[in-house]
Amino acid sequence: MQRNDPAQYDALADEWWRGQGGFAALHWLAASRAEHVPPATGPGALLVDLACGGGLMAPHVARLGYRHVGVDLGAAGLRVAREHGVTPVRGSVLAVPLADRCADVVVAGEVLEHVADDTLVIAECARLLKPGGTLVIDALADTRLCALLMVTIGEHVPGGPPPGIHDPALFVDRRRLLAAADAAGLDLRLVGLRPSVRDLLAWRRGRRDVVRMLPTRSTAVVFAGYGTRRP
Q1: How far apart are CA 86 and CA 106, in angstroms?
Q2: Does residue 203 fall inside a structural domain?
Q3: In what order do the strands lie in the sheet with 186-195?
Q4: How far apart are CA 107 and CA 191, in angstroms?
Q5: Is residue 215 part of a domain?
Q6: Residue 19 pLDDT > 90, yes or no?
Q7: Neighbours of 220 (CB within 10 A)
Q8: What are 141-181's pLDDT values in tens digits?
Q9: Which of 166, 137, 142 is nearest to 23 (CA)?
C-alpha cells in the first residue's frame, strides 16, 4: 500500500458528506475549526480554505458570513465542494494561486501532515492573510503516540482514518511549526484536541451526527493552532 496517496481522495469522493463514513472525523474537526473563526465583518470578507476536500467547512463558513474559496489538488473533491457553495480553485497548498493579503481568514485543516514541507504551507498562510487576519489549523503531531493511535489502531476502528491515508513520516514537528509561524509574521498558539468520549459513544449508536472535539493540554496527537497575522 502506498501511504499518503492523493489519488485515494478521488477514490473516496463519495465519502465526504457521509456523517458515518470514512471521513467522519473530518466533520468533527471542521466544526471545531469554525468555533475559532470570528464572524465576518462585512459582505466582502473572504475565507480561504486550504486543502478543502469536499468542502466540509461550507455550512460553517456560510453561517459566519464569509465568501468561501476552497483550494485543493483533487478535482473530484472540488466538484463536491462546489455543490456545497464553495468557490473552487485547483492548486497546491505549497504555492497557492491567490493574491497576497487577499484573505481575512485562512483555514488549513488536516493538510500539514500530508505535505513534504509543512513550513512552506505556513508561509503561504501568512502570505494570503491580511494584517490582523485569523489563521486556524489542525494537524497530527510527530510522536510515537500519534502514530500508534492514528495509524496502528485508528485505521481499524469506526470513525478512524481510512487505511493508508496517513504517512507517519510526514507528521508535524510542533517546535518547527511554531518557529516557521513566527518567522512568517504569525502569532500562533497550539492546543491539543480529543473527541468527547460521551459524544463518540452516542455517534456510534447513531444518536449524534457530530462529535465535539475538546481541548487538551497535550498536543502529542491531534492538535490545533489558532493565530493572527501580525501587522
Answers
A1: 14
A2: yes
A3: 87-90, 67-72, 46-50, 103-109, 129-140, 222-229, 186-195, 213-216
A4: 16
A5: yes
A6: no
A7: 17
A8: 999 999 999 999 989 887 778 889 999 999 999 999 999 99
A9: 166
> What residue spans of 84-195 are helical by DSSP H?
118-128, 144-147, 174-183
The single residue listed with the C-alpha cell 466538484 is: 79
Q: Tell me, what's the pLDDT at 46?
A: 98
- Between CA 227 and CA 131 the distance in angstroms is 12
| Separation between Cα atoms, residue 66 and residue 46, nearest integer Å | 5
Cα separation, 50 vs 92, in Å, equals: 9
Strands 67-72 and 46-50: parallel
Domain count, the chain: 1
66 grid coordinates: 464569509
To the nearest 5 percent, what fractions of the chain are helix, strand and coil?
35, 25, 40
User: What one-letter code names the amino acid at 57?
Assistant: M
> CATH code at 115?
3.40.50.150
Please report whether residue 19 resides in a domain: yes
| Max Cα distance, the chain (Å) | 48
Q: Which three cell numbers stand for residue 180?
A: 516557521
Separation between Cα atoms, residue 107 and residue 34, nearest integer Å = 9
Single-letter amino acid code for the residue at 110: E
State the residue range of the domain holding 26: 7-229
Residue 1, domain member (yes or no): no
Query: How many residues can be counted in the chain?
Result: 231
In Å, what is the CA distance from 71 to each residue of 77, 81, 94, 103, 135? 10, 10, 11, 13, 15
Rounded distance, CA 192 to CA 141, Å? 10
Closest CA to 70 of 17, 109, 24: 109
